[in-house]
Specification:
By secondary structure, this protein is α/β, with parallel strands linked by helices. It is built from 11 helices and 11 strands. The structure holds adenosine monophosphate.
Length: about 325
Amino acid sequence: MNKIVKQQILDKIKEYDKIFLFRHIRNDGDCVGSTKGLKRILELTFPEKKIYLIDDDHAEYLEFLGPEDEAVEDNEYTDALGIVIDTASEKRISNKKYTLCKELIKIDHHIPLENYGDIMWVEENRSSACEMIADFYATFSDELKIDKEAATYIYTGMVTDSGRFKYEGVNGETLRCAATLLDQGIDTETLYAHLYLESFGYLKFKAEIYRRMQITENGVAYIFIDKAMQNEFNLTLEQASACVGTLDSIRDCISWMVFIENSDAENSIRVRLRSRFVAINPIAEKYNGGGHAMASGATVYSWEEAEQLLRDADAHVKEYKETHEGWL
Ligand code: AMP
């Protein structure tokens, strides 16, 4: 699929001696895996090119994948190609120096909120951006080189963004891409240990979530994680935010969300919205956010606004339940 745009991207890569890779703020496994994986593929294939991945944003749970490149002078960007992966809108690009690049390519699997870049390869039905990078490799495997390290980065994003190959969007193509990566000899036991083992203290926090979680009238499960709760369990914002999956298996609750109080001057609250059967992105988009149909992010600026979002989500779920069958 999309062979023409993939060919354009490969041709553009060949044209440039210097390439910068970019990804979204609040790193996750998919944006880290896809950028590190493509960087490694390009370095193996084109050893004479300089490939940079520079980003101040770091996710603690992905540190095992290793560090990024040191910052470089601004003038280094000006004759380079930029490739932005897994980022729907420009405001979410983490390293703002992307504007300095001579040309820009967007590779993404989010619902497109805006167009940017000189070449765009967007497939919103892909389970991850990493799947797209694996597909890019597979399409040109007679020209591109891969190894276990590159495959491990890319597989990491495929696993995390698809909920271990569980979410909507996973299809035969996903597993064929994953198979290509596994053929490189990925140490999946160590990878899963890095990604999914939890500390004793964190499990205690999860127990508290189960104690405090609430449900709206029509089945939206939610929890408010204010600063007091974060302090009580000695959690970073990233750790507090990671618990969204805890609410994902409640029968009849076809949407679930966590509200995490940020530590910024605006008293903003990060909202992580998830759902099955019903698309939840319209609610995220109404509250300064976006993402995927079943996994979106938003921001609200008070607990009252959080309650308002919940009322909207509840009405949305009610409407869905009244007009659809087969959900559970
Ligand atoms: P999160 O719960 O923050 O992991 O977000 C779920 C998905 O929605 C991820 O793929 C994010 O990249 C995306 N997302 C989160 N916040 C926003 C936003 N404000 N605008 C667009 N996409 C977002």
